[in-house]
Write a structure and sequence with these properties.
- This protein has strands spanning about 15-20, 30-35, 40-50, 55-60, 65-75, 75-80, 85, 95-110, 115, 125-129.
- It is mainly beta and about 130 residues long.
- It has a domain at about 30-110: Jelly Rolls.
- Strands 1, 2, 3, 4, 5, 6, 7, 8, 9 and 10 form a ten-stranded antiparallel β-sheet that branches.
- Strand 1 and strand 2 form a beta hairpin.
- The protein is globular, with a radius of gyration of 14 Å.
- The N and C termini lie far apart (about 30 Å).
- The model is unreliable at about 120-129 (pLDDT under 50).
Amino acid sequence: MAKIFIKHVDEVPWGPRHRTMEDGGTASSHGKFIGDPADGPWVNYSEMGPAFLVKPHSHPVDEVIFVVKGGLKLGAKTYGPGTIVSIKADTQYQLQAGPEGCTFVNVRAGDPKKASFASGSGPKLAPQG
């Protein structure tokens, strides 16, 4: 990857849409991945539908999340646009979109698929076309 990487989010296609399995597939999520995971950092611009849930998990690297639109629930509190969340490596957390959904940007380095889910809570997502 070049030392300076510039890309407008509109130049990047949406990735596959995922739906949660627990609620019968009503909540959905998809994103735009920008960057090179092998040489990071990379950025993921994501939209989660209302109440979309990401079960308890952690990543082996630090992560930053910036809420762009809607609400993002962490713990008992929902955070709105302009909120920045910094999560240290190996910190277990769960997040959920608010009732209006959530658009956010997250930044990490390393393999974007490398996550450790809490025992029995693995990612129950099904790709949807």
